Amino acid sequence: MHFLQEFTKSRSHKIVILISSIILIIYLIVSFALVSRFNSKLPHYSSSLHHISHLEDISSATSLDHIVFGIASNKVSWNSRKEFIRLWWKPKQMRGCVFLDYNTTLLDQDNQHDLLPPLCTSADTTGFLYTYRGGLRSAIRVARIVSETVALNHTDVRWFVFADDDTVFFPENLVKVLSKYDHELWYYIGSNSESFSQNTFFSFDMAYGGAGFAISYPLAKVLAKTFDSCIDRYSYLYGSDGRISSCLAELGVSLTKEPGFHQVDMKGDMFGLLAAHPLAPLISLHHLDIVNPIFPYIESPVKALEHLYEAAKHDPHRIIQQTVCYDMYFSWTVSISWGYAVQVYARHVPLPYLLRAQKTFKPFKRGKRMNNNFNIDMREYESDRCRRAVVFYMDRVSSEKDEIQSVYRNSILRSRSKKLLHANCSRIPASPLDLEEIRVFSNKFELNVKQLLAPRRQCCDVLPVTNSEVMEISLRECKVEELIYMHL
To answer: Which residues cross the membrane (predicted)?
Structure first.
């Protein structure tokens, strides 16, 4: 009897274990099926995540051939602003279109010739809502250039780049910067305004259309499909770039900022901005027909830019990159914005001070006090002219293989005020005013992806010379532990 009870008890225990095991197996099978079913519903927008470790291999092949441009213009501005586009457009390497608000088939064919992009006619936008009081309905047409450029159906595209007709690009730098990014992922790349009030009114997280911006191919394709349905939801916005940014936000994409895109929401003399450019390749400049010519002795804004592009032809990645060195013999400070200008201070000026842009420019809009604030690291223009730098503007650039020489001439000699400044600043025993020419020697600057991801400013040396009217400077990579400061 005792044996039978033990047997029954043991059998019952085994049955319980067996039933529990079956329940556990069923639970695991059902759970796996549910998880698999759930995962199958997750949308897969990109299959390129496994390529991230191979970023440099993917991006190294990016070229101008992989970019398609969409440029906004109109019948009022095209005839004058096409000269800006002619400066940077490379017809045998670039693809894209200038979108106009009238039938381009009636245009004089000499307008486009071989030196300008093809002309396209924007589609009719009268069916879209626009409710911003006092604004321009053309904002809808300009915004739709995104979807109309995608609809051109170019092949082998990695990036779409959009800009205004008064935007100039430095194409080699645009390609280099875009090469940092995996074009198979969703990217919206550009920059905001230099004006604090403009950013406050519109957005700090929007790519400003005048500066230009880039959208990766897979993102642009999805945006183009949803764009028209999105536009009417933002009828109350002022501009085209706000609509584009908002529709991208609906797709969950925010702005990736690159400091080389420049909206130039300022007026007057933009010397301070160009002479202390961020440690990043110069990609674009905008509003160049409302600011002073960048070289003050060249009256035409286009001609002044042509002069800058002459330097960029020799060394595009180095153009206006700032390098600072110190002349220990005279205790002078030298700031070089390569291909643009050299500033020589007859005193010791700390490096962090020089990296801040001088406020040589004026607000984009007058009136409100906030308009005087700029969204850049800035210092006031020196009121004491004896403490100001003597400025030498780029005169010419020559190269032989990878060795480059750029020459800068004293701007005061052009203004015929040297004697007056000598008289007022006679207390300075050795003055940069005595210099007539500065020669800068360098090797061609070739950026790679690693330098773009982890940039470092270059160093320079003031070379000994026998001519008191000439200064010679050599640019080079800094040594591993080298510091840039005045060795007193």
So the answer is: 15-35
